[in-house]
Design a protein that fits this description.
Length: 66
């Protein structure tokens, strides 16, 4: 994590490096209730969003190749 901040600062993105330090100091709070499994709606939403990602990445790649 600190290596990423250093590389970002060396590349000249000082504000981004400061933001990375500010938000990276605290640990992740974790889920509110990790005992409850994901609902079917959220699982379906994850699959739909994965399909959107694949479609967008494929069309972006085709744009660069042509």
């Amino acid at each position: 994590s600190l290596i990423g901040v250093l590389v970002t600062a060396i590349l000249g993105y000082w504000l981004m490096a400061l933001l990375m330090l500010f938000f990276g100091v605290r640990g992740h709070p974790g889920p509110v209730d990790d005992a409850v499994p994901l609902s079917n709606g959220r699982k379906i939403l994850a699959v739909v969003l994965l399909c959107v990602l694949i479609i967008c990445a494929t069309s972006l790649r085709a744009t660069f190749l042509s």
